Amino acid sequence: MTETLTIAVPSKGRLMEETSNFFRARGLNLQKIGHDRGYQGEIEGYDDVDIVYLSASEIAYQLKTGQIHMGVTGEDLVRENIIGVDQKVEFLKRLGFGFADVVVAVPDCWLDVHTMADLEEMAMEFRRRHKRRLKVATKYMNLTRQFFTKKAVAGYRIVESLGATEGTPMGGTADLIVDITSTGETLEANHLRILDDGLMLKSEANLVASRAAEWSGGAAEIRLDIMSKLNGDPA
After folding, report:
1. Which candidate, 52, 92, 84, places its Cα nearest to that of 68?
2. Residue at 68 is within a domain
3. Pair 105, 179: CB distance under 8 Å
4. What local confidence, expressed as pLDDT, does residue 159 receive?
5. What is the mean pLDDT of each run of 10 residues along the chain (235 residues)?
6. What pLDDT score was predicted for residue 1?
7. Do residues 130 and 68 share a domain?
């Protein structure tokens, strides 16, 4: 009995449109089943492939747990939400859209802070004067800890941000931020700048395979067929 291959794609917005366009250009037509706002779909001509429409963050979670075989989502979400990422998933293909940089940004008025080493020096002085650590607002808590450890920065604590991270320094709830940016315009509008060595990750949409999924039956063979088309030139 042939096992069905399950592929998750973003459920809305530009990521959904660009994913559909990318697949279609290589002869794989994604189409929803039933209502246009439904969450089930298929690839035209592939009875053994199920498409599910999920949020980008949910796709990362289901890749981790093996509930889906493959998914399209941002590399930033995969690396943030999956500890030991390279043992749990395989990055199959960069898709050339959904670009975003994960960066460390500080207030413009911090004239002497240009690098992560400068930030640690400031953190030590800040703690001596104000009796607290610098507050870093972010939704990328795991990536932040990993990067700050790599850069030998210890004088901080994370403030979890659930939205509008770039506004937290001006609002007084954080001193600096770790967030995504594509053009830098929002950071500039909030009087923030990226540290010279503050680029944590250059992210884009990826097709990712779960190592935790069940690849028995025909799933592995279907994957090879799908990948042969996706790796080809667009029509």
Report:
1. 52
2. yes
3. yes
4. 97
5. 84 95 97 79 94 96 97 97 95 97 97 97 95 97 97 96 92 96 94 98 98 90 95 85
6. 38
7. no
Tally of structural domains, the chain: 2
Domain of 15 in residue numbering reads as 5-99+204-230
* Tens digit of each residue's pLDDT (9 = 90 or more) over 148-162: 999 999 999 999 998
Q: What is the largest CA-CA distance in the chain?
A: 69
Radius of gyration of the chain (CA): 21
pTM (2 d.p.):
0.91
Q: Is there a single domain that holds both residue 34 and residue 71? A: yes
